[in-house]
Amino acid sequence: MATVAEVPAAAPEPLGRLDQTLLIFAGLMEGGKEDEETVRELGELTRLLHDDVEVTKKGETSVTTVIDSDCVDTILCYLDMRQPDIVRAHAALCTSAYLKAAGEDGGKKLAEFFHERVRRGTYDDYIVAFCVAATIFPIVPDLTSELFLSEGFLASLGPLMRRKWKSRKVETACLEMLNAACMHSACREAVQKYCTEWLEEIVDQDPDDAVKSMHTADPDMHLQEGSISMRRHSLQVQNLAAVVLAKLRVSQYAVPSTPATSGPEPRIQPATTSIEDLSKRFTKMLLEEEETEHVQPSIEGLAYASLQPKVKESLSKDSKTLKRLVKALDDAPPRSPLIYGTLSIFASLTRYRPIETDEEKRIRQLKAYANAGGKVQPDPLNEDEHVTARCKRVFDAGLTPVLIKQSKSGSAASLALIISIIHSLSTPPPLRGQLAQQGAVRLLIAAWAALPETESQPKRAAAQALARILISTNPVLVFGGTRPIPQSAAIRPLASIITPDPTADRRDLLPTFESLMALTNLASTDDDTRKAIIRTGWDDIEEQLFNANPRVCTAAVELVCNLVQDPEQTLALFGDGTPKSVNRVKVIVALADAEDPKTRSAAGGALASLTSCDEVVKAVAKLDRGAEVVLGLCRDEREDLRHRGAVVVRNMVFAEGEVGKMARKKLLEEGAVEALMGCAKSSKSQEVVGVVVQAAEGLMKDGEV
């Protein structure tokens, strides 16, 4: 019989979700713990709140029922700027999960917390309230904007920031809140109305003013550095205020002002800090700060200031600042806000204006005329000439290798900006070869493959940039040797933009044209590449043969001309005798008679290759105007076209058996002898004359000449 000691103890029952939640809050409220333990508890609470949404659908009680105002207070206080960054980050995730799980009740508790802290009005309460607002603005912008726009709140910030004795943490927390609020249009307008004046006072503060005022109040006072610093705004506060002002200034530029009708302007205008002045301040901040981790305010400010043409131009001409920006991007931690901000600056500097049709240009000019009160003043710094110069300066700063580095570990948003920058840098042809040398082709192919189909615009931009580079470079130099990327890897991205963007408001044929040109370049290399192009994009390529735009149509024909250099593909597409292949031959012959000489030349080149196949010769000979069109090439005023025509005639007359006999007869009926004689007399090239002689000899095979 077993003794009591031998009876195994029963395992403790696991805690339910509600008990786990209460236990976690007990630990969080206790305080005095290591950061790692606090982070772990916040993570556990975040997991419970995330799971709560699905669990409650099954009828279970929500953990939010045991989270009262004190619990919410506990979570939100961990958003305090005085907490370690890692704790604040996990508290932000936890807050987001709570607001999602608690719904309306969570919003109510958040509002109560915010208003109560502001009502108390101590420095500590202000700091926590402002930090909470700054953190949750991106999470629940509508809810936070209601708190932010509550009556009297913004108006109360001026007296707070103008207090004689300054609190750097209160001012920093307040400005970070305003910085976040400026992302919301209604809040930005309110900040513009209530805060601009004192923001400018902070930015324009004279460091000696505090000393002068203290001397005026008490000339015998012994001044100490501590007392002086408490009477003036810190440099960090001034810089943050400048960032907020930059966002306000940019929004002012974005909204066209209507001409005033209420009366004459006042003779003396209040002094304002211009966006150019703010830009100079941010540049100075950036250059003076050696540690990359401390340049975020200057980067953020420049990201907004660089939206303006004058700032773009001056910044691009400052090689020292450009190289400092490149270094900041190179040193930035993966997926940090610093990366996105720096990339935004380079994207602004290199962005071209969208290509417009004549109608779109006319409408834009009319709108500008109306908004400017009858004075059209287009900014010349936005013209392509200036953008191209900026692209060259940015490229010379050594940006491309850093973009390649950051593309390997960046977020989807950062990758989209990187693609946008490379897309702009690939616009000037002189930069394309250098981009290829520095690895841009590999970046673009990898980015295109990594982006999901939902990111259609960045994918198309990556493919178009790839096309531009491959138009201007030798594929053998880009893909040959020991390079790890095969040439075939570029085909799918290029083929994806042959068809115009179905989601666009208007039909942009430039990507189509550029992709066809790039594929033509690739198709000039080897049969394997030609097979891959046909396998991947033949249907779309064939469709462009009917494009009404002559340049696109010509590019498609030139691509076909290179594709059919492979006899196997010629036979498969044009020479199997099926109605579909006969119709394709008919299309090429028709294009050889087009008005555009480049289209005729490309189609003539295609026929010169195709007619090496007897089935194609048969199809051409059977067409009503087939022989006439071929001989028309021989009669053309351009020697290259006459050469192509003579090659086609030679191929046709030397075809085997009945096909050759039929071809010779058709050509003779259309005046082949006269056409060849005229071709020989007009041509200076011995190569062309030699082909004509061979064609004439072939015509005599049947003895009918």
Automatic annotation (TrEMBL):
Asked whether the keyword Cytoplasm is assigned, the reply is yes
For the UNC-45/Cro1/She4 central domain, which residue ranges apply? Answer: 70-248
Where is the protein situated, by its record's location annotation? Cytoplasm
Per UniProt, the keywords (alphabetical) are: Cytoplasm
| Gene Ontology terms, MF aspect | Hsp90 protein binding
| Entry GO terms, CC | cytoplasm
Highest taxon, organism lineage: Eukaryota
What is the official name of this protein in its record?
Myosin-binding striated muscle assembly central-domain-containing protein
The cross-references to InterPro entries, in alphabetical order and at most eight, read: ARM-like, ARM-type_fold, UCS_central_dom
Which Pfam families does this chain map to? UNC45-central
Keyword Chloroplast in the entry? The reply is no
